[in-house]
Amino acid sequence: MSRQQKKIDPAAVEGDFFRVKDLLSDQERRTLDRVRAFLAEKVEPTATELWARAESPLHLVDAIRELNITGLPGDAPGVDERGPLLNGLISMEMARTDPSFATFYGVHSGLGMGSIRECGSDEQRERWLPEMARWTRIGAFALTEPLVGSATAGGLLTTARREGDTWVLNGEKKWIGNATFADLVVVWAHDEADGQVKGFVVEKGTPGFTARKLEGKIALRGVQNAHIVLDDVRVPEDNRLQRANSFRDTARVLKVTRGGVAWFAIGCSIGAYEAARAYAVEREQFGRPIASFQLVQDLLSRMLGNITACQAMAVRMAALQAEDRLSEAQAAMAKMFCTTRMRETVAWGREIFGGNGILLEHKAARFFADAEALYSYEGTRDMNSLIVGRAATGFSAFV
């Protein structure tokens, strides 16, 4: 039997070598299959074009709404129950197709809606979450600043000053996804009165709020990141998130979304692996497919090893989340480990393509570039490692 005629394991072809998806129930698998079909039919065909033009997939908002996968059951009527594992695998599938789309979706559904769900009052959740679940209002999350990135827990430069029933916000934010078109932007600022971090929902059209698109990005170009300027932006007390009274409350949101980035990293790795494997089977050198060469098979097996190890960690993370036992340090470790292994994996994938790996016509180039943003956002590897180190030793090494 020739090399080309040997039986191929479908799970290996798709990068799910240990068949993680088999852990889902039949109903959950049908939901995942529906999402996967949507990604193949709606997202994949335009992903590279939007990436090249640096445009977000706003034309897909109606189709996303019809999927009915945004939010949790308490957010709006008709939202289906989904466990953390299914949500994680949905995130994985999105990033497997297009990390830019996954981030565009995650900023709205994870950071934007998550901030209101975790830190808003009952009235605020009822006011904003139903519309956000239906995508009639799109959200963004503004924490990082031009001069404050990893040090956000130590002190934001953006200020909030209370004047009667109004708060006045001043400062700048940077790298804020979706902010150029968002209807609601959750802005985090330190209260001049008590020095604590508080959250404010700034609605589109508020005077003094400007969002300028950041140009020249080499990663996640399909996400509109903005530089925000807040110049005496007046926000009513009703728009202050009532359960956000310190950075510890902000961290509750980040704990969940950092776990989501771990799933994004796995999806990005799978996308790179699948592209590299497909190329290796078809690309011929020295009279035979390069997939038959030992060095190429070694790279593919390393990629699968990284993907599988990260999936195992993420599956356990999802189980802890389902039991409401996931700690900040565990989420930080998942983000740290999975994005680090992703960086290795996409590099090996690009290597299999040789010079073709830097051409956008081959998807490996997009995954290779996008991995750099996933590696950095939601806390760098170094900062997440210090969260884990603090949990392991009892000592804080943060400056």
Automatic annotation (TrEMBL):
<feature type="domain" description="Acyl-CoA dehydrogenase/oxidase N-terminal">
    <location>
        <begin position="26"/>
        <end position="134"/>
    </location>
</feature>
<feature type="domain" description="Acyl-CoA oxidase/dehydrogenase middle">
    <location>
        <begin position="140"/>
        <end position="233"/>
    </location>
</feature>
<keyword id="KW-0560">Oxidoreductase</keyword>
<feature type="domain" description="Acyl-CoA dehydrogenase/oxidase C-terminal">
    <location>
        <begin position="251"/>
        <end position="392"/>
    </location>
</feature>
<dbReference type="InterPro" id="IPR006091">
    <property type="entry name" value="Acyl-CoA_Oxase/DH_mid-dom"/>
</dbReference>
<keyword id="KW-0285">Flavoprotein</keyword>
<dbReference type="InterPro" id="IPR037069">
    <property type="entry name" value="AcylCoA_DH/ox_N_sf"/>
</dbReference>
<keyword id="KW-0274">FAD</keyword>
<comment type="similarity">
    <text>Belongs to the acyl-CoA dehydrogenase family.</text>
</comment>
<dbReference type="InterPro" id="IPR013786">
    <property type="entry name" value="AcylCoA_DH/ox_N"/>
</dbReference>
<dbReference type="Pfam" id="PF00441">
    <property type="entry name" value="Acyl-CoA_dh_1"/>
</dbReference>
<protein>
    <submittedName>
        <fullName>Glutaryl-CoA dehydrogenase</fullName>
    </submittedName>
</protein>
<dbReference type="InterPro" id="IPR045008">
    <property type="entry name" value="ACX4-like"/>
</dbReference>
<dbReference type="InterPro" id="IPR006089">
    <property type="entry name" value="Acyl-CoA_DH_CS"/>
</dbReference>
<dbReference type="Pfam" id="PF02771">
    <property type="entry name" value="Acyl-CoA_dh_N"/>
</dbReference>
<dbReference type="InterPro" id="IPR009075">
    <property type="entry name" value="AcylCo_DH/oxidase_C"/>
</dbReference>
<dbReference type="InterPro" id="IPR036250">
    <property type="entry name" value="AcylCo_DH-like_C"/>
</dbReference>
<dbReference type="Pfam" id="PF02770">
    <property type="entry name" value="Acyl-CoA_dh_M"/>
</dbReference>
<dbReference type="InterPro" id="IPR046373">
    <property type="entry name" value="Acyl-CoA_Oxase/DH_mid-dom_sf"/>
</dbReference>
<dbReference type="InterPro" id="IPR009100">
    <property type="entry name" value="AcylCoA_DH/oxidase_NM_dom_sf"/>
</dbReference>
